Amino acid sequence: MGKETGFLEIDRQDRTYDDPRERVKHYKEFSIPHSEEGLKNQAARCMNCGIPYCHNGCPVNNIIPDWNHMVYEGDWKNALEVLHSTNNFPEFTGRVCPAPCEASCTLNIIDQPVTIKSIECAIVDRGWKEGWIKPQVPEKRTGRTVAVVGSGPAGMSCAQQLARAGHTVTVFEKSDRVGGLLRYGIPDFKMEKHLINRRMVQMEAEGITFRTSTEVGVDVSVKSLRENFDAIVMAGGSEEARWLDIPGSELSGVRLAMEFLTQQNKRNAGDDEMRAAPRGSLTATGKDVIVIGGGDTGSDCVGTSNRQGAKSVTQIEIMPRPPEKEDKLMTWPDWPMKLRTSTSHEEGVDREWAILTKEVVSEDGKVTGLKCVRLEWEGRQMKEVEGSEFVLPADLILLAMGFVGPRKTGLLDQSAVELTDRGNVAADTQNYRTSQDMIFACGDMRRGQSLVVWAIREGRQAARAVDEALMGFSELPR
Ligand SMILES: Cc1cc2nc3c(=O)[nH]c(=O)nc-3n(C[C@H](O)[C@H](O)[C@H](O)COP(=O)(O)OP(=O)(O)OC[C@H]3O[C@@H](n4cnc5c(N)ncnc54)[C@H](O)[C@@H]3O)c2cc1C
Ligand code: SF4
Q: Cα–Cα distance between 14 and 120 in angstroms, integer?
């Protein structure tokens, strides 16, 4: 424990951000990191609890009190080693994780939690800056080969663990670049993409081959993977977006959030956005935009619409407005339901809750509005409020209502793996095996739409399961 009385003396201070009026002019990250002294102080707030609930709150079970202590002591290199022992990509989670660890921090019961996420991010950013992060090339190769399908955080962490165990790993990715939703879902202003490129270089040096623009089930058959690899890991994500089935939703002014976000990320990368634009180029510039869906994807659409110069941005949600604050004695150490205001929300948006969409309003095939009705919620039952119908003006309606499971395409057909009732690939979290021999599944493809940190956890655990299946034992951590 760094400083025994740290939590009594020092208040929580998190990273700050550039002024919203300035940051909406660009797509770059805008957080202002702590000074070294500031980080040391924040790490000193950690109480090194006998039972550190933050370990369990964190899906990769980061050993948080240990690296907090090391940061307090100025021992950054060891802090990095401890952090990497549980998390392959802390620079991703240090930027985009919602930090359930902080909800379960013991200090959070009576005070503000330790700024765990910012400290995690600072440790790994420093590691890259100092040149401490190097490829970890295995001393021996096993001669076993593994095909990983999908290069999101699940596929990346799985591939990296397997390569470090000595296996020869090829990652197949249908997109033109590696990273999954980190690359084409999450906007650059939340996480710049050079961070993925840098890891890709490290992974290639560790012996991993990336085959981009190659869809398994289309460009390469599952049969050929079976013939050429000893094991297959399916990490293809949960890509089937939920569609809004109301009159008028077929109009071209109603678009999926991922179409919109992917195009902007491609523009930022200097790529031809039309390669991701089957229904044509799409921007919010000068438009009244309505985002349907209150989650991360919806928030990213808000931030991107503001950067593109939308005339107005409204985000609507079917569920009622959550409470401003949680009842900590009831919720701790679990993730509480409460109102969350993202940095994108701070940049400007009208947020409306308990709203049901009825119909897309149009003139000559052009979207002009969205007819809605207000709802009353009683427990899980919703009731339309009589006479509360209204029309919100809209030129562009973005659907950000979540994902219903993996796309039912060649990969699932050809592999013939069993699916769960919810349409995800069936595999348990003990051995990550699907119903087909030596085919494993992890990440959103197995668990359904989730978080980057859960994808990293599943990729790591699936790698251990594959290693055990190939070698009869595994020294990889779970
Ligand atoms: C807009 C948006 C914002 C988000 N923001 C956050 C956030 O802030 N924080 C957070 O923690 N989580 C966030 N998430 C969720 C998070 O991104 C996902 O949970 C995570 O990326 C899942 O990782 P994955 O590796 O399982 O799948 P994915 O990241 O979806 O990667 C799957 C990859 O598999 C590829 N693939 C699929 N089928 C094939 C095939 N047959 N052949 C070859 N390749 C294939 C896909 O092209 C894709 O690249 C967000 C999600 C979205 C959509
Ligand atoms: S990965 Fe997420 S939950 Fe785990 S320590 Fe980092 S911010 Fe917290």
A: 12
Could you tell me which CATH class the domain 254-399 is placed in?
alpha beta
Per-residue model confidence (pLDDT) at position 276: 65
Ligand nearest to the CA of 239: 1
The SS3 of residue 351 is strand
Evaluate: CB of 178 within 6 angstroms of ligand 1: no
Q: Which ligand 2 atom sits closest to the C-alpha of 57?
A: 3
Ligand nearest to the CA of 94: 2
123 Cβ inside 6 Å of ligand 2: no
**If one looks up domain 145-239+404-471 in CATH, what number appears?**
3.50.50.60
Whether residue 277 has pLDDT greater than 80? no
Same fold, 145-239+404-471 and 254-399: yes
Distance CA 253, CA 281 (A): 11
C-alpha 460/C-alpha 440 separation (Å) is: 12
* Cα 180 to middle of ligand 1, angstroms: 5
6-130 carries CATH number 3.50.50.60:
no
How do the domains of the chain map onto residue ranges? Answer: 6-130, 145-239+404-471, 254-399
Nearest in space to 264 (alpha carbons), one of 311, 307, 298 = 307
The Cβ-side half-sphere exposure at 231, using a 13 Å CA radius, reads 27
pLDDT tens figures, 185-195: 999 999 999 99
Q: Is the CB of 256 under 6 A from ligand 1?
A: no
